[in-house]
Design goal:
It is built from seven helices and eleven strands. By secondary structure, the chain is of the alpha/beta class. The longest helix has 23 residues. About 35% of the residues are buried.
């Protein structure tokens, strides 16, 4: 993959978003596991508000490094390389994915920045760090997945350095143009090159697991059902062809 990704993510087609909104992050991790990809769930990405809807979007990446006293200052907020400038570069529909190195004692964004992101049509914010101004952030109705909240500003512990570069978020490598799906289980990455495979395999996986759940509710024991043996697989294929 290129070390110099395009500045603006490619928009996702409406039918792609609609399909992925019906697929749980758990199912996506299973599909990618079958392709050998084990590290796609971003650790620490919890919904800031319970019950947030499942979101789908291209990743728009932002990167922090440890605070350095001559760079991480309130004056840096006016710099051309700032979170403010990055937000103004975000197209509608993206999910901002922020590498905060897991720092939990300095909030990367507060209510004003989140309000601006919401105004620009950004779908959501995902970070392995925290936000500040919790009540204000919640009032913006920008969906956020992160590790919680803290009062200090970002410059208390972090230096913002770049956007639209490869980052690490929650221990996962995220490149611009990758696809992110978030729900109650957190944020999962679909590498851009695997998007078509997930779109093809996911509905069948969801259908399969739905059928298995109905069998469990009928009292069918798990051995031979999950995973399926040949007899159960034949019965599943017969019943789903009929239905």
């Amino acid at each position: 993959m290129s070390a110099h990704p395009p500045a603006t993510p490619e928009p996702l087609a409406a039918n792609v978003i609609a399909t992925l909104k019906t697929i749980t992050t758990a199912t996506i991790t299973t599909i990618l596991l079958k392709k050998g990809l084990r590290n796609v769930w971003m650790r620490g990405t919890r919904p800031l508000r319970p019950g947030q809807e499942r979101l789908v979007g291209r990743a728009f990446t932002l990167r922090f490094v440890p605070a350095r006293e001559d760079l991480a200052t309130p004056e840096s907020w006016s710099s051309p390389i700032s979170t403010r400038a990055a937000i103004e570069a975000m197209p509608a529909g993206v999910i901002a994915v922020v590498d905060a190195m897991g720092v939990t004692d300095a909030g990367i964004f507060g209510d004003i920045l989140c309000a601006r992101m919401k105004k620009r049509g950004v779908a959501g914010l995902v970070s392995d760090g925290v936000v500040r101004d919790l009540a204000g952030v919640l009032s913006t109705n920008l969906p956020v997945w992160c590790q919680g909240q803290a009062a200090p500003a970002s410059v208390a512990g972090l230096t913002f350095v770049a956007w639209q570069q490869p980052i690490a978020c929650g221990g996962v490598a995220v490149f611009p143009n990758d696809v992110v799906v978030v729900d109650d289980d957190g944020a999962v990455l679909i590498p851009a090159a695997y998007l078509d495979h997930v779109l093809e395999a996911a509905p069948a996986q969801e259908q399969l697991e739905g059928w298995i759940m109905k069998e469990v509710e009928k009292g069918v024991p798990l051995p031979g059902l999950y995973p399926m043996n040949a007899e159960t697989k034949a019965r599943y294929e017969k019943e789903t062809k009929k239905g």
